[in-house]
Amino acid sequence: MKLINKVLTGMALTAMTATAAQASTLEDVRAADELKCVVTTGLAGFAAPDADGRWEGFDADFCRAVAAAVLGDGDKVKFVPSTGKTRFTMLNSGEGDILFRNTTETLSRDVDLKLSFLPVNFYDGQGFMVPASLGVTSAMDLDGASVCIQTGTTTELNLADFFRANGMSYEPVPIETNEEGFTNYVAGRCDVYTTDASGLASTRAKFDDPSLHVVLPEIISKEPLGGAVRHGDDQWHDIGKWVVNALINAEEMGITQANAMNLAANVGNNPGINRLVGSEGSMGAMLGLDAKWAARAVAQGGNYGEIYERNVGPNTPLQIARGLNNLWNNGGVLYAAPIR
Amino acid sequence: MSTPTSSTNPLLRAWYDKETRSVIVQIIAAALIISFFAYIINNAVVNLSNIGKDINFGFLWDNASYDINQHLIEYSSTSSHFRAMIVGLINTLLVAVAGIVLATILGFLLGVMRLSNNWLTQKIAYVYIEYIRNVPVLLHILLLHGLIVSSLPRPKGSYNFGDTFFLNNRGFQMPSPDFQSLFLIVGAFIVGGITFAWWFSRHAQKVQDETGKAYPVAIINIAAIVLLPLAVYFVLGSPIEWDVPALKGFNFKGGMVVRPEFIALWLALSFYTAAFIGEIVRAGIVAIDHGQTEAAQALGISNSRVLKLVVIPQALRVIIPPLTSQYLNLAKNSSLALAIGYMDIVATIGGISLNQTGREMECMLIVMAIYLAISLIISSGMNWYNNRMQLVER
Questions:
Q1: B254 CB near a chain A CB, below 8 Å?
Q2: What ipTM was reported for this prediction?
Q3: What pTM was estimated for this model as a whole?
Q4: How many CB atoms lie within 10 A of CB A338?
Q5: CATH topology of domain B81-136+260-389
């Protein structure tokens, strides 16, 4: 019986250490020397592997910026693809450290799903795309249509609300990924594809002739998209939050991918810039990082504006105008809290 | 004579005793298993509470807020998650039952074809079975769904069968019956007909056993169940109004629709399972000694009756146990519905509800409990049938 006791005590001890060893996410990430970032399974412009298997896109760049700030190297990111349904479970179960997956911030996700959202980095809204040949000009003409919709998204709930509020009927055709939605839409299983307007732009850009498909003018919801981390690790949340704020502030202050490291090397005469790039003050230390965290984040993929223009802006296949996603002093609503 | 040193140590002595050793090993094994599960359960509970979550089924009564395309009971986005779960459960049962029926019919056909003396028939069954059962069922499902959605025309170009039935890539549209109150009388005649047929078959059997006189049971029963109610139906002036589907805007309005997702899942599961059932049936028939057939033929019984009265009742005893596990497989494989967006129990409560509420643990427990219940019901039903079919020793 002594042996059994030993075994049982051993088991109990392992169980206790396994649960007690809840190190902070920052320590875990440093120990692994790798940031596990939850992204989509593939949405061109936001996060999708290119021909060489390198993940590219708006969300991917935010992952790299965080890795650059925390680990000093923007390439130390392990991208964890997830569907709309699996993303939160993957984050909460620790398969990912941070999530950048064009995810809408809502009360129930914040509170009930136990997520902590980072500042909004993309203001979006749900739209509809239909083949131009249908001759539909307004979402109010969609009564009786079959609608392809990604399951496990806020768009699914908005869609139900929209049709109910307008007394119209529809057939929901549930799909798992953007790719599957594209296939069903092309085959004509559904008349309409609905998702965030940015996602529609991304999908539409994949057609040989995008002009054969129109995005209807109605935007039926607010979709503030942002990154997220698990509830309960405030330090890690702060890091994510201030990396996003730093990228937006960097655009406002004219800190770019090209000049960020130079600015960090010399103490200039603009205190705001000095604090951001770490040549003055101790912002990095407050976060548990080194002084040059934000400078590296910007040098990795550029400031917010550069990331936007490179991945989804008017000169990319997605052709999404800055619109709401412009700086507050430029006609948009991006208004990041100051770094001081 | 010196006693072995080992016998002085009571622990070692116990170890060398075969009986005691086996008890010790079992106790250790049981302790390991129990602590393993205790660890896992404890881990789940601790981890959930670490991120501030509890286990609570209250969300089932909240609004589901999403729509489900195929619902056999009343359902809308204002219904509860519980109702969404029931809708999903009904969809699962529908495809499982329809699949089991079709797979059984096809499977028996294939089994008999495999034993046919006709070279072509036999080879067709052989090729079918070897192809179907050696490709994963998920691929069959995706292939069929892709075929239906991509190769059938869109609603505007539907195949039109007499302006009442339509086939397109949104499904098979057909009229739905709207029963008038007079139909109750027809219903009463159908119930009466079935009751009569049941009584008459037993009576005819009894008469035949006693006197050897055979009634034309089949014809009389069909007349009672089908022809008489049909006559009543027309006499009453056809008390069913048919709601015929018609193309309106994007889709057909009115009538009923069998969606491509259901058709693809149903056919793929049936075709796949039928291949296995075919082999089981063949094995069952081959297991019956040929002497049985010869003996029956020697008595001058016709070939079809030899099969019906001698071979099949005996073959069933071999067939039913493995058949049960095929039925279980089919019911469980129906969860692959997820791949093509058929709204079964996994897609509703285990999918969308789970995701929208973030209650992973609760939803997964519910789904597992439901599959367990379905499987146990199928097993016990088949066991009951198996016991009835077993050799009754006199």
A1: no
A2: 0.77
A3: 0.80
A4: 10
A5: MetI-like fold (1.10.3720)
